[in-house]
Amino acid sequence: MTDAERTLWQHLRQLVDGGSHFRRQDVIGPALAEFACHARRIVIEVDDEEGSTTETARKGKARAEKLAVRGYRVLRFGHSEVLNNIDSVMQTIQASLRPGQPREA
């Protein structure tokens, strides 16, 4: 687990929102989700900007499509975004957990 993933995990575990229980490293069909909230059908991925390549982006998009078929929405954040602006990241996540938010990726 990277520093960014650890930081996000600590914050996700502290969320007090009905139905927002997240699991870490959870298998959903053929995909492995870094963080998943099954009740709200949300997956959160933390991307490594340094390793960002066309191939990495293609694989991420393919994984998001597989999850979308199962009704999951994928939220992506960069490592530096999580480490330097966790409050904004958490606000985005909390907004996505509200009932009535779109479920599409």
Provide a brief overview of the structure.
This protein is an alpha+beta fold and 105 residues long.
What can you tell me about this protein's structure?
- The protein has a single domain, classed as 3-Layer(aba) Sandwich (Endonuclease, Chain A).
- 43% of the residues lie in helices and 24% in strands.
- The longest helix has 16 residues.
- The radius of gyration is 13 Å and the shape is globular.
User: Order of SSEs, N→C?
Assistant: HEEEHEHH
The strand order across the widest sheet is 1-2-3-4
Mean pLDDT: 85
Q: What's the number of helices?
A: 4
Task: Name the shape in a single word.
Answer: globular
- Biggest pleated-sheet summary: 4 strands, mixed
Q: Report the radius of gyration as a whole number of Å.
A: 13 Å
Question: Which runs of at least 5 residues are low in confidence (pLDDT < 50)?
Answer: none
Briefly, what CATH class?
Answer: Alpha Beta
Strand percentage lies at 15-25%
Structural class: alpha+beta
Q: Can you tell me the number of structural domains? A: 1
Beta-strand segment tally: 4
Enter the CATH topology name: Endonuclease, Chain A
What is the CATH architecture descriptor? Answer: 3-Layer(aba) Sandwich
What distance separates the N and C termini?
A: 24 Å
Q: What is the fourth-level CATH superfamily?
A: VSR Endonuclease
> Helical content, roughly?
40-55%
Topology:
Layout: H1 3-13, E1 23-28, E2 31-37, E3 42-47, H2 54-69, E4 73-78, H3 79-84, H4 86-97
Parallel strand pairs: 3-4
Antiparallel strand pairs: 1-2, 2-3
